[in-house]
Amino acid sequence: MKEAYRVFLLLSLCLSLSACIASSANTCPAYLETKCGDDTSGDWKGEFFPGIPKIKYEGPSSKNPLSYKWYNAEEVVLGKKMKDWFRFSVAFWHTFRGTGADPFGAPTKSWPWEDGTNSIAMAKRRMRAHFEFMDKLGVNRWCFHDRDIAPDAKTLAETNANLDEVVELAKELQKGTDIIPLWGTAQLFMHPRYMHGGATSSELGVYAYAAAQVKKAMEVTHYLGGENYVFWGGREGYQTLLNTDMKRELDHLAAFLQAAVDYKKKIGFNGILLIEPKPQEPTKHQYDWDAATSFAFLQKYGLTGEFKLNIECNHATLSGHSCHHELETARINGLLGNIDANTGDPQIGWDTDQFLTDISEATLVMLSVVRNGGLAPGGFNFDAKLRRESTDVEDMFIAHISGMDTLARGLRNVAKLIEDGSLGELVRKRYQSFDSELGALIEAGKGDFETLEKKAMEWGEPTVSSAKQELAEMIFQSAL
Ligand code: XUL
Ligand code: CO
To answer: Would the pTM count as exceeding 0.90?
Structure first.
Protein backbone atom coordinates (compact mmCIF):
# COMPACT_ATOMS: atom_id res chain seq x y z
CA MET A 1 0.00 0.00 0.00
CA LYS A 2 1.28 3.47 -0.83
CA GLU A 3 2.56 5.31 2.24
CA ALA A 4 0.37 8.40 1.69
CA TYR A 5 -2.75 6.26 1.39
CA ARG A 6 -1.75 4.25 4.44
CA VAL A 7 -1.41 7.42 6.53
CA PHE A 8 -4.76 8.66 5.20
CA LEU A 9 -6.40 5.34 6.13
CA LEU A 10 -4.91 5.39 9.59
CA LEU A 11 -5.96 8.95 10.23
CA SER A 12 -9.49 8.20 9.06
CA LEU A 13 -9.63 5.24 11.41
CA CYS A 14 -8.77 7.48 14.31
CA LEU A 15 -11.94 9.48 14.81
CA SER A 16 -12.29 7.86 18.19
CA LEU A 17 -9.14 8.10 20.23
CA SER A 18 -9.81 4.68 21.65
CA ALA A 19 -9.83 3.39 18.09
CA CYS A 20 -6.37 4.76 17.46
CA ILE A 21 -4.44 2.54 19.74
CA ALA A 22 -2.97 0.15 17.23
CA SER A 23 -3.61 2.08 14.08
CA SER A 24 -1.08 4.86 14.29
CA ALA A 25 2.01 4.86 12.15
CA ASN A 26 3.98 4.22 15.34
CA THR A 27 2.45 0.90 16.12
CA CYS A 28 2.18 -0.79 12.73
CA PRO A 29 -1.12 -2.71 12.49
CA ALA A 30 -0.34 -6.24 11.42
CA TYR A 31 -3.02 -6.43 8.76
CA LEU A 32 -1.12 -3.96 6.60
CA GLU A 33 1.76 -5.40 4.63
CA THR A 34 4.60 -3.58 6.28
CA LYS A 35 7.89 -4.56 7.80
CA CYS A 36 6.36 -4.45 11.26
CA GLY A 37 7.18 -7.24 13.61
CA ASP A 38 10.75 -7.68 12.43
CA ASP A 39 12.31 -6.07 15.44
CA THR A 40 14.54 -8.43 17.36
CA SER A 41 16.02 -5.95 19.80
CA GLY A 42 16.61 -7.25 23.28
CA ASP A 43 15.02 -6.32 26.54
CA TRP A 44 15.14 -2.79 27.85
CA LYS A 45 17.94 -2.38 30.33
CA GLY A 46 17.28 -0.46 33.54
CA GLU A 47 14.41 1.72 34.63
CA PHE A 48 11.73 2.99 32.25
CA PHE A 49 10.88 5.95 34.45
CA PRO A 50 14.16 7.13 35.97
CA GLY A 51 13.71 10.13 38.20
CA ILE A 52 10.08 9.30 38.98
CA PRO A 53 9.78 8.15 42.60
CA LYS A 54 7.08 5.94 44.10
CA ILE A 55 4.14 8.30 44.40
CA LYS A 56 3.26 9.01 48.04
CA TYR A 57 0.43 10.75 49.84
CA GLU A 58 1.62 14.19 50.98
CA GLY A 59 -1.71 15.84 51.80
CA PRO A 60 -3.60 18.83 50.32
CA SER A 61 -0.94 21.41 51.13
CA SER A 62 1.74 19.69 49.04
CA LYS A 63 2.89 21.49 45.91
CA ASN A 64 4.66 18.41 44.56
CA PRO A 65 2.92 17.33 41.32
CA LEU A 66 4.27 13.81 41.80
CA SER A 67 2.38 13.23 45.06
CA TYR A 68 -1.17 12.45 46.12
CA LYS A 69 -2.93 15.30 47.82
CA TRP A 70 -6.29 13.62 48.50
CA TYR A 71 -5.87 9.91 47.72
CA ASN A 72 -4.45 8.18 50.76
CA ALA A 73 -4.69 4.46 49.97
CA GLU A 74 -4.74 3.14 53.55
CA GLU A 75 -6.94 5.84 55.08
CA VAL A 76 -10.39 4.67 56.14
CA VAL A 77 -13.27 6.76 54.84
CA LEU A 78 -16.88 5.68 55.44
CA GLY A 79 -15.77 2.37 56.90
CA LYS A 80 -13.47 1.28 54.06
CA LYS A 81 -9.88 1.96 53.03
CA MET A 82 -9.70 4.38 50.12
CA LYS A 83 -7.89 1.79 48.01
CA ASP A 84 -10.83 -0.58 48.52
CA TRP A 85 -13.43 2.00 47.53
CA PHE A 86 -11.59 2.69 44.29
CA ARG A 87 -9.69 -0.40 43.17
CA PHE A 88 -7.98 1.85 40.59
CA SER A 89 -6.81 0.40 37.31
CA VAL A 90 -4.52 1.59 34.51
CA ALA A 91 -5.89 1.13 30.97
CA PHE A 92 -3.05 -0.41 28.99
CA TRP A 93 -4.36 0.85 25.65
CA HIS A 94 -4.44 4.56 26.48
CA THR A 95 -1.36 4.67 28.64
CA PHE A 96 0.90 2.41 26.61
CA ARG A 97 -0.60 2.33 23.09
CA GLY A 98 -1.92 5.89 22.91
CA THR A 99 0.22 7.77 20.44
CA GLY A 100 -1.45 11.16 20.37
CA ALA A 101 -2.67 10.67 16.80
CA ASP A 102 -6.02 12.29 16.01
CA PRO A 103 -8.15 12.48 12.84
CA PHE A 104 -6.04 15.36 11.60
CA GLY A 105 -2.62 14.66 12.93
CA ALA A 106 0.16 12.15 13.31
CA PRO A 107 1.36 10.68 16.62
CA THR A 108 2.98 13.15 18.98
CA LYS A 109 4.36 10.88 21.68
CA SER A 110 7.76 9.31 21.41
CA TRP A 111 8.22 7.35 24.59
CA PRO A 112 11.86 6.36 25.02
CA TRP A 113 11.13 2.63 25.18
CA GLU A 114 9.15 2.54 21.89
CA ASP A 115 11.05 1.43 18.78
CA GLY A 116 8.26 2.07 16.27
CA THR A 117 7.46 -1.60 15.72
CA ASN A 118 4.60 -3.85 16.69
CA SER A 119 6.91 -6.75 17.41
CA ILE A 120 6.74 -9.27 20.23
CA ALA A 121 9.97 -7.84 21.66
CA MET A 122 8.34 -4.41 21.74
CA ALA A 123 5.17 -5.82 23.30
CA LYS A 124 7.22 -7.37 26.08
CA ARG A 125 9.25 -4.25 26.70
CA ARG A 126 6.04 -2.22 26.87
CA MET A 127 4.59 -4.69 29.37
CA ARG A 128 7.66 -4.23 31.59
CA ALA A 129 7.22 -0.44 31.39
CA HIS A 130 3.56 -0.88 32.33
CA PHE A 131 4.43 -2.87 35.46
CA GLU A 132 7.01 -0.30 36.56
CA PHE A 133 4.40 2.39 35.98
CA MET A 134 1.79 0.61 38.15
CA ASP A 135 4.34 -0.04 40.87
CA LYS A 136 5.46 3.60 41.02
CA LEU A 137 1.88 4.86 40.92
CA GLY A 138 0.79 2.43 43.64
CA VAL A 139 -2.05 1.01 41.52
CA ASN A 140 -2.54 -2.73 41.55
CA ARG A 141 -5.00 -3.34 38.74
CA TRP A 142 -4.88 -3.05 34.97
CA CYS A 143 -7.21 -3.47 32.00
CA PHE A 144 -6.37 -4.61 28.50
CA HIS A 145 -7.65 -5.61 25.09
CA ASP A 146 -6.03 -8.75 23.70
CA ARG A 147 -4.60 -6.84 20.73
CA ASP A 148 -3.18 -4.00 22.87
CA ILE A 149 -0.78 -6.25 24.61
CA ALA A 150 0.29 -8.56 21.77
CA PRO A 151 0.43 -8.14 18.00
CA ASP A 152 -1.93 -9.65 15.47
CA ALA A 153 -0.36 -12.24 13.18
CA LYS A 154 -1.34 -13.87 9.88
CA THR A 155 -3.43 -16.65 11.38
CA LEU A 156 -5.55 -16.91 14.50
CA ALA A 157 -3.32 -19.68 15.84
CA GLU A 158 -0.20 -17.51 15.44
CA THR A 159 -2.00 -14.52 16.99
CA ASN A 160 -2.99 -16.68 19.96
CA ALA A 161 0.63 -17.82 20.32
CA ASN A 162 1.77 -14.16 20.36
CA LEU A 163 -0.78 -13.42 23.05
CA ASP A 164 0.32 -16.41 25.13
CA GLU A 165 3.91 -15.25 24.99
CA VAL A 166 3.14 -11.76 26.28
CA VAL A 167 0.60 -13.06 28.83
CA GLU A 168 3.27 -15.38 30.18
CA LEU A 169 5.50 -12.36 30.80
CA ALA A 170 2.62 -10.47 32.46
CA LYS A 171 2.01 -13.48 34.69
CA GLU A 172 5.66 -13.52 35.67
CA LEU A 173 5.64 -9.77 36.38
CA GLN A 174 2.50 -10.16 38.50
CA LYS A 175 4.17 -12.86 40.61
CA GLY A 176 5.04 -11.67 44.12
CA THR A 177 2.88 -8.54 43.70
CA ASP A 178 -0.84 -7.95 44.32
CA ILE A 179 -1.29 -6.76 40.74
CA ILE A 180 -4.05 -8.43 38.69
CA PRO A 181 -6.27 -7.39 35.80
CA LEU A 182 -9.44 -5.58 36.81
CA TRP A 183 -10.75 -6.75 33.47
CA GLY A 184 -9.74 -8.07 30.10
CA THR A 185 -11.55 -7.80 26.79
CA ALA A 186 -11.28 -8.71 23.12
CA GLN A 187 -10.67 -5.98 20.59
CA LEU A 188 -13.47 -6.59 18.10
CA PHE A 189 -13.39 -3.22 16.39
CA MET A 190 -9.96 -2.41 14.91
CA HIS A 191 -9.43 -5.08 12.29
CA PRO A 192 -11.24 -4.61 8.94
CA ARG A 193 -12.90 -8.04 9.36
CA TYR A 194 -15.03 -6.42 12.06
CA MET A 195 -16.30 -3.59 9.89
CA HIS A 196 -19.89 -4.91 10.14
CA GLY A 197 -19.48 -5.88 13.79
CA GLY A 198 -18.35 -9.03 15.57
CA ALA A 199 -21.32 -10.75 17.16
CA THR A 200 -23.68 -8.70 14.97
CA SER A 201 -21.77 -9.06 11.72
CA SER A 202 -23.77 -10.14 8.69
CA GLU A 203 -21.00 -12.69 8.02
CA LEU A 204 -21.06 -16.04 9.81
CA GLY A 205 -17.28 -16.38 9.45
CA VAL A 206 -16.78 -13.14 11.36
CA TYR A 207 -19.20 -14.26 14.11
CA ALA A 208 -17.14 -17.43 14.51
CA TYR A 209 -13.85 -15.51 14.49
CA ALA A 210 -15.18 -13.10 17.13
CA ALA A 211 -16.29 -16.07 19.27
CA ALA A 212 -12.83 -17.60 19.01
CA GLN A 213 -11.24 -14.29 19.95
CA VAL A 214 -13.51 -13.80 22.99
CA LYS A 215 -12.91 -17.42 24.05
CA LYS A 216 -9.16 -16.82 24.05
CA ALA A 217 -9.42 -13.40 25.72
CA MET A 218 -11.55 -14.91 28.51
CA GLU A 219 -9.02 -17.70 28.96
CA VAL A 220 -6.08 -15.31 29.35
CA THR A 221 -8.04 -12.96 31.63
CA HIS A 222 -8.83 -15.97 33.82
CA TYR A 223 -5.21 -17.16 33.69
CA LEU A 224 -3.98 -13.76 34.88
CA GLY A 225 -6.45 -13.78 37.79
CA GLY A 226 -8.68 -11.12 36.19
CA GLU A 227 -11.77 -10.19 38.17
CA ASN A 228 -14.10 -9.12 35.36
CA TYR A 229 -14.51 -9.43 31.61
CA VAL A 230 -15.86 -6.56 29.47
CA PHE A 231 -17.94 -6.48 26.29
CA TRP A 232 -17.81 -3.13 24.57
CA GLY A 233 -19.69 -3.33 21.29
CA GLY A 234 -17.98 -0.59 19.36
CA ARG A 235 -19.09 -2.02 16.04
CA GLU A 236 -22.15 -3.89 17.29
CA GLY A 237 -24.65 -1.51 15.80
CA TYR A 238 -25.55 -0.05 12.43
CA GLN A 239 -24.83 2.76 10.01
CA THR A 240 -28.27 2.61 8.34
CA LEU A 241 -31.38 0.56 9.04
CA LEU A 242 -31.97 0.30 5.29
CA ASN A 243 -29.46 -2.56 5.04
CA THR A 244 -29.87 -3.90 8.57
CA ASP A 245 -31.98 -6.69 10.05
CA MET A 246 -31.93 -5.29 13.57
CA LYS A 247 -33.89 -8.13 15.17
CA ARG A 248 -31.61 -10.75 13.67
CA GLU A 249 -28.49 -8.88 14.77
CA LEU A 250 -29.78 -8.50 18.33
CA ASP A 251 -30.71 -12.20 18.43
CA HIS A 252 -27.16 -13.01 17.31
CA LEU A 253 -25.67 -10.73 19.96
CA ALA A 254 -27.73 -12.44 22.67
CA ALA A 255 -26.71 -15.90 21.43
CA PHE A 256 -23.08 -14.78 21.47
CA LEU A 257 -23.33 -13.48 25.04
CA GLN A 258 -25.10 -16.66 26.18
CA ALA A 259 -22.25 -18.70 24.67
CA ALA A 260 -19.79 -16.50 26.61
CA VAL A 261 -21.70 -17.23 29.84
CA ASP A 262 -21.59 -20.96 29.09
CA TYR A 263 -17.87 -20.87 28.34
CA LYS A 264 -17.08 -18.83 31.44
CA LYS A 265 -18.76 -21.50 33.55
CA LYS A 266 -17.04 -24.29 31.65
CA ILE A 267 -13.56 -22.96 32.40
CA GLY A 268 -14.40 -22.03 36.00
CA PHE A 269 -13.92 -18.29 35.46
CA ASN A 270 -15.82 -16.58 38.25
CA GLY A 271 -15.22 -13.05 36.99
CA ILE A 272 -18.17 -10.76 36.38
CA LEU A 273 -19.22 -10.22 32.76
CA LEU A 274 -19.76 -6.55 32.07
CA ILE A 275 -21.51 -4.78 29.22
CA GLU A 276 -20.19 -1.29 28.53
CA PRO A 277 -22.93 0.94 27.09
CA LYS A 278 -22.10 3.58 24.50
CA PRO A 279 -24.58 5.22 22.12
CA GLN A 280 -22.45 5.77 19.03
CA GLU A 281 -18.91 6.19 17.72
CA PRO A 282 -17.62 4.36 15.81
CA THR A 283 -21.06 3.24 14.54
CA LYS A 284 -23.93 5.66 14.06
CA HIS A 285 -26.02 3.66 16.53
CA GLN A 286 -24.67 1.05 18.92
CA TYR A 287 -27.04 -1.52 20.37
CA ASP A 288 -25.86 -1.04 23.97
CA TRP A 289 -26.97 2.61 23.78
CA ASP A 290 -27.17 3.31 27.51
CA ALA A 291 -27.77 1.57 30.84
CA ALA A 292 -31.54 1.34 30.39
CA THR A 293 -31.29 -0.03 26.84
CA SER A 294 -28.72 -2.59 27.98
CA PHE A 295 -30.95 -3.61 30.88
CA ALA A 296 -33.93 -4.08 28.55
CA PHE A 297 -31.78 -6.20 26.21
CA LEU A 298 -30.53 -8.37 29.09
CA GLN A 299 -34.08 -8.83 30.37
CA LYS A 300 -35.51 -9.73 26.96
CA TYR A 301 -32.90 -12.43 26.43
CA GLY A 302 -32.92 -13.78 29.99
CA LEU A 303 -29.35 -12.63 30.64
CA THR A 304 -29.89 -10.58 33.81
CA GLY A 305 -28.07 -12.22 36.65
CA GLU A 306 -25.21 -13.09 34.31
CA PHE A 307 -24.13 -9.55 33.44
CA LYS A 308 -23.51 -6.21 35.08
CA LEU A 309 -22.66 -2.87 33.50
CA ASN A 310 -19.41 -0.99 33.08
CA ILE A 311 -20.50 2.64 33.06
CA GLU A 312 -18.18 5.05 31.28
CA CYS A 313 -18.82 8.68 32.16
CA ASN A 314 -18.26 10.20 28.74
CA HIS A 315 -20.33 7.46 27.07
CA ALA A 316 -23.10 8.61 29.43
CA THR A 317 -22.86 12.20 28.24
CA LEU A 318 -22.70 11.08 24.59
CA SER A 319 -26.03 9.33 25.14
CA GLY A 320 -27.59 12.56 26.38
CA HIS A 321 -27.49 11.56 30.05
CA SER A 322 -25.24 12.49 32.92
CA CYS A 323 -22.78 10.01 34.37
CA HIS A 324 -24.75 10.19 37.63
CA HIS A 325 -27.94 9.21 35.78
CA GLU A 326 -26.28 6.18 34.21
CA LEU A 327 -24.72 5.12 37.51
CA GLU A 328 -28.03 5.43 39.32
CA THR A 329 -29.90 3.57 36.56
CA ALA A 330 -27.38 0.75 36.82
CA ARG A 331 -27.37 0.81 40.62
CA ILE A 332 -31.12 0.69 41.24
CA ASN A 333 -31.33 -2.28 38.89
CA GLY A 334 -28.53 -4.16 40.65
CA LEU A 335 -26.25 -3.75 37.63
CA LEU A 336 -23.52 -1.36 38.72
CA GLY A 337 -20.36 -3.39 38.22
CA ASN A 338 -17.52 -1.11 37.19
CA ILE A 339 -16.72 2.45 36.16
CA ASP A 340 -14.59 3.53 33.23
CA ALA A 341 -13.62 6.83 34.80
CA ASN A 342 -13.21 9.65 32.34
CA THR A 343 -14.91 12.74 31.03
CA GLY A 344 -15.56 14.51 27.75
CA ASP A 345 -15.32 18.09 26.66
CA PRO A 346 -18.48 20.23 26.49
CA GLN A 347 -17.29 21.80 23.22
CA ILE A 348 -16.23 18.59 21.47
CA GLY A 349 -18.89 16.11 20.49
CA TRP A 350 -16.82 12.94 20.50
CA ASP A 351 -15.31 10.53 22.94
CA THR A 352 -12.31 12.52 24.12
CA ASP A 353 -11.46 10.12 26.97
CA GLN A 354 -10.07 12.77 29.30
CA PHE A 355 -9.08 12.29 32.90
CA LEU A 356 -11.90 13.43 35.20
CA THR A 357 -10.84 16.53 37.14
CA ASP A 358 -14.21 18.05 37.98
CA ILE A 359 -14.72 17.76 41.74
CA SER A 360 -18.47 18.26 41.57
CA GLU A 361 -18.83 15.48 38.97
CA ALA A 362 -16.54 13.22 41.01
CA THR A 363 -18.72 13.80 44.09
CA LEU A 364 -21.85 12.77 42.17
CA VAL A 365 -20.05 9.66 40.90
CA MET A 366 -18.98 8.75 44.42
CA LEU A 367 -22.52 9.29 45.76
CA SER A 368 -23.64 6.40 43.55
CA VAL A 369 -20.63 4.27 44.43
CA VAL A 370 -21.16 4.74 48.15
CA ARG A 371 -24.90 4.01 47.83
CA ASN A 372 -23.87 0.86 45.97
CA GLY A 373 -21.64 -0.18 48.89
CA GLY A 374 -18.61 0.00 46.57
CA LEU A 375 -17.91 -1.67 43.25
CA ALA A 376 -15.99 -4.83 44.15
CA PRO A 377 -15.16 -7.02 42.31
CA GLY A 378 -15.32 -4.08 39.91
CA GLY A 379 -13.37 -0.87 40.30
CA PHE A 380 -12.34 2.33 38.57
CA ASN A 381 -10.54 1.88 35.29
CA PHE A 382 -8.97 5.04 33.88
CA ASP A 383 -10.31 4.78 30.35
CA ALA A 384 -8.55 8.07 29.77
CA LYS A 385 -5.53 9.36 27.94
CA LEU A 386 -3.18 12.26 27.84
CA ARG A 387 -4.04 15.12 25.54
CA ARG A 388 -2.23 15.06 22.21
CA GLU A 389 -0.13 18.00 23.31
CA SER A 390 1.07 16.39 26.56
CA THR A 391 4.26 14.67 25.60
CA ASP A 392 6.45 14.31 28.69
CA VAL A 393 6.76 10.89 30.34
CA GLU A 394 5.92 12.49 33.70
CA ASP A 395 2.57 13.62 32.22
CA MET A 396 1.50 9.95 32.33
CA PHE A 397 1.91 10.04 36.11
CA ILE A 398 0.47 13.51 36.61
CA ALA A 399 -2.69 12.57 34.67
CA HIS A 400 -3.34 9.48 36.80
CA ILE A 401 -2.49 11.25 40.07
CA SER A 402 -4.88 14.05 39.19
CA GLY A 403 -7.68 11.62 38.26
CA MET A 404 -7.19 9.63 41.46
CA ASP A 405 -7.05 12.75 43.65
CA THR A 406 -10.23 14.11 42.06
CA LEU A 407 -12.16 10.92 42.80
CA ALA A 408 -10.66 10.81 46.30
CA ARG A 409 -11.98 14.33 46.90
CA GLY A 410 -15.34 13.12 45.64
CA LEU A 411 -15.34 10.34 48.23
CA ARG A 412 -14.31 12.73 51.03
CA ASN A 413 -17.13 15.08 49.98
CA VAL A 414 -19.67 12.26 50.10
CA ALA A 415 -18.49 11.46 53.62
CA LYS A 416 -19.17 15.11 54.55
CA LEU A 417 -22.65 14.96 52.99
CA ILE A 418 -23.49 11.77 54.83
CA GLU A 419 -22.16 13.09 58.13
CA ASP A 420 -24.11 16.32 57.71
CA GLY A 421 -27.25 14.33 56.87
CA SER A 422 -29.33 17.25 55.62
CA LEU A 423 -29.43 16.16 51.97
CA GLY A 424 -30.64 12.70 52.97
CA GLU A 425 -33.19 14.33 55.26
CA LEU A 426 -34.41 16.61 52.45
CA VAL A 427 -35.05 13.58 50.24
CA ARG A 428 -36.69 11.61 53.04
CA LYS A 429 -39.05 14.49 53.83
CA ARG A 430 -39.95 14.92 50.20
CA TYR A 431 -41.58 11.49 50.09
CA GLN A 432 -42.86 11.34 53.66
CA SER A 433 -46.54 11.37 52.64
CA PHE A 434 -45.92 7.82 51.41
CA ASP A 435 -44.74 6.84 54.91
CA SER A 436 -48.37 6.12 55.76
CA GLU A 437 -50.79 3.22 55.71
CA LEU A 438 -52.02 4.05 52.21
CA GLY A 439 -48.50 4.73 50.97
CA ALA A 440 -47.39 1.32 52.19
CA LEU A 441 -50.38 -0.25 50.44
CA ILE A 442 -49.41 1.45 47.14
CA GLU A 443 -45.76 0.46 47.49
CA ALA A 444 -46.86 -3.12 48.10
CA GLY A 445 -48.68 -2.97 44.75
CA LYS A 446 -52.11 -3.00 46.40
CA GLY A 447 -53.26 0.56 45.84
CA ASP A 448 -56.36 -0.07 43.69
CA PHE A 449 -58.04 2.80 41.86
CA GLU A 450 -61.38 2.57 43.77
CA THR A 451 -59.65 3.03 47.15
CA LEU A 452 -57.55 5.90 45.75
CA GLU A 453 -60.61 7.60 44.26
CA LYS A 454 -62.36 7.43 47.65
CA LYS A 455 -59.34 9.04 49.32
CA ALA A 456 -59.07 11.73 46.66
CA MET A 457 -62.76 12.63 47.21
CA GLU A 458 -62.34 12.67 50.98
CA TRP A 459 -59.10 14.73 51.00
CA GLY A 460 -60.06 17.30 48.36
CA GLU A 461 -57.34 19.33 46.64
CA PRO A 462 -53.92 18.00 47.79
CA THR A 463 -51.27 20.31 49.23
CA VAL A 464 -48.06 20.15 47.18
CA SER A 465 -44.73 20.99 48.81
CA SER A 466 -41.65 22.65 47.35
CA ALA A 467 -39.02 20.33 45.82
CA LYS A 468 -36.28 22.49 47.44
CA GLN A 469 -33.91 22.04 44.49
CA GLU A 470 -31.89 25.15 45.29
CA LEU A 471 -31.55 24.04 48.89
CA ALA A 472 -30.39 20.60 47.73
CA GLU A 473 -27.83 22.29 45.46
CA MET A 474 -26.71 24.56 48.29
CA ILE A 475 -26.14 21.62 50.62
CA PHE A 476 -24.28 19.73 47.87
CA GLN A 477 -22.04 22.70 47.00
CA SER A 478 -21.18 23.30 50.64
CA ALA A 479 -19.60 19.83 50.81
CA LEU A 480 -17.23 20.43 47.87
C1 XUL B 1 -14.38 2.86 23.83
C2 XUL B 1 -14.14 2.25 25.14
C3 XUL B 1 -13.35 1.01 25.13
C4 XUL B 1 -13.81 -0.02 26.11
C5 XUL B 1 -13.09 -1.33 25.99
O6 XUL B 1 -15.09 4.05 23.86
O7 XUL B 1 -14.54 2.78 26.15
O8 XUL B 1 -12.03 1.34 25.31
O9 XUL B 1 -13.66 0.44 27.42
O10 XUL B 1 -13.17 -1.89 24.75
CO1 CO C 1 -14.41 2.22 28.18
So the answer is: yes
Cβ–ligand 1 distance for 314 under 6 Å, the answer: no
Residue 160: its H or E element: helix 156-174
Whether ligand 1 lies within 6 angstroms of the CB of 148 is answered as: no
CB of 228 closer than 6 A to ligand 1?
A: no
Distances (CA, A) of 378 to 314, 315, 334, 338, 425: 18, 18, 13, 5, 30
pLDDT in tens, 254-286: 999 999 999 999 999 999 999 999 999 999 999
What distance in angstroms lies between residue 279's CA and the mean position of ligand 2's atoms? 12
Question: Residue 467 carries which side chain, given as an amino acid letter?
Answer: A
Report the C-alpha gap between 204 and 248 in whole angstroms. Answer: 12
Which is nearest to 276 in space by CA: 375, 176, 383?
Answer: 383
The terminus-to-terminus CA distance of the chain in angstroms comes to 55
Residue 348 dihedral angles phi and psi, to the nearest 5°? -120, 125
* Catalytic site includes residue 145: yes
Q: Which of 271, 335, 288 is nearest to 308 (CA)?
A: 335
Closest ligand 1 atom to the C-alpha of 187? 10
Phi, psi of 437 (to 5 degrees): -60, -45
Stretch (H or E) spanning 274: strand 272-275
